[in-house]
Here is the input.
Amino acid sequence: MTVFLRNAAGFFVQVFPCILMVFLPFPREAYRFWRKYVLIGITATALALAALFPAVMYAAANWNLALSANLFMLTTISLTLAAEIWLVREAGVKKIMTVLAVLFYGASQYWLVNVLIGILAGRLPFSLERESWAVYSPCGLAMYAATAAALLPLMVLFVIRPMGGYLREVETKETRKEFLVLLVSTATFLAMIVSADMDYYTGAGARVYLQKLPLFLTVLLDQMLIYWLICRESERRKRDNEHRRAMEIQQIQYEKIVGDMENTRRMRHDLRHHYSALNEMLCKGQIEQMKDYLAQVLEAASSRMNEVYCGDMVVNGLLQYYAGLARDQGIRCDIQAECDAVAVDAADLTVLFGNAMENAINACRKSTGERWISVRVGTVQGSLAIEISNACRGVRLNRGIPTEDGFLPAEAFLSDRADGGYGLRSIAQTTQKYDGSAKFRYNAERQIFTARIRMNMRSQ
Here is the structure.
C-alpha cells in the first residue's frame, strides 16, 4: 500500500503541474466550456491517472518497469494534447507553444531532481532504494515535491504569465519566428535529457547528470532568455500599435482640416457665383426667380455642411470622417450620438471607431442588398455605450462558443481576409482596459451584424 501511494503521489506531483500549465496561458474566452469546469475536469482526470499509474506499474513489474512508466507518461501527454485541441479554441501554433513551455518545465524538473539525488543522496533521511515495482523512491518523491514547490511559481511568473500576454497580443501569422526558436531550443533541451538518460542506463550512473550540469544550466538560461524576449516583443508590438493608432488620429485630423479648407475655398468660389447670379436677377427685376434660386442654394449648402453629432471633439471627428467615407461609397449612414466630453483616450476611441466602422463599411461593400450603417453612441451611468449595426452578407463563425443574450465574443468570429484580420479582437482588448466589454451578433435571417461596446469612463 505504501508503494501504491508513493507511485500515485509521485506521478501526480510530476505530471499535474504540466497538465495545468498547458491550459493556463489562454483567456477564458478561448475555452469551449466554462474555464472553471475545464480546470476541474483536468484536475479530476489527473487524479484518476495518478490512481491508475501504480496498478499499471504493478502489472508491468515482471516486464520492463522503466519502459512501462515512460509509455504511460507518453500516453498521458497524448491525452493532454488531445484535450487541449478539443477544449481550447485557438490556433494550433499557439497551443504547441504552450506545450513547448511545459516540456521545458518538465525537463528542467527531471534534470534537477537527478542532480539533487546525485549530490544529496547520502545526506538525506529519505531512502534511494525502490521496491521491485516502485517507480519513485522515497528520496525521489521528496525531490519531485520540493522542486515542484520551487519551480512552479517561477514558471508561472516568468514563463506562463508572459506567454499568456504574448498569445493574446499577437496574431497567429506573427508567431512564426518565436515558434521556430522555441521548437529548436526545446528539442535541443530534450535531446540533452535523452542523451544523459541513455548514458545513465548504460552504466554511467547518476554522475552523468553532474558532469553535464554546466551545459544544462547554459541551456536553461537560454530558454529563460527566449521567454523574456518573447514577452518584450509582445510589449514592443503593443507600443507600436498604440503609436500607429496615434498616427491614424493625426492623419484623420489632417484630412479633416484639408477637407475643411477645400470646402471653404469652394464655398468662396460658389459665393461669388451666387452673388453675380443674384445681382443679375435683381437688375432684371426677377424677384420670384431670386426666391427660388436662394431656396436651392440654402438647401444645397445645408446638405454639404458637416453635421455635429455630439459634444466630444474626438468622437464627433471620427463619426464625421467615417460617415463621409461611407456616404462616398453609396452607403446610407444613420448616426445618433448623445454625449459630451468622454473620459476615454483619443487613441482608444480611434481603435474602437476605426475598426468597427471599417468592418461595417467593408461588410456593406460586399452586401448585395441595401447598404446601410446605423451608429448609436451615448453615456449610461458613467459608461460609454456604442452600438453599431450594418448590412452584412455573412460571417464565418467559430462554432461551439456559448452565446450571451445572442451575442458572442470576438474569438467566435473568423476573418475572411487572406492575411488574417483582428479588428474585433483589437476592439475587445481596448474595452478590457476600461473594465468594459465588446460583444458581437450576426442575424443570418435579416443579414445584420451588430457590435455592442461598453467602457467605464475614467474620472476626469
In short: Confidence is low (pLDDT under 50) at residues 417-421. The CA atoms of residues 405 and 457 lie 24 Å apart. The longest strand covers residues 372-380.
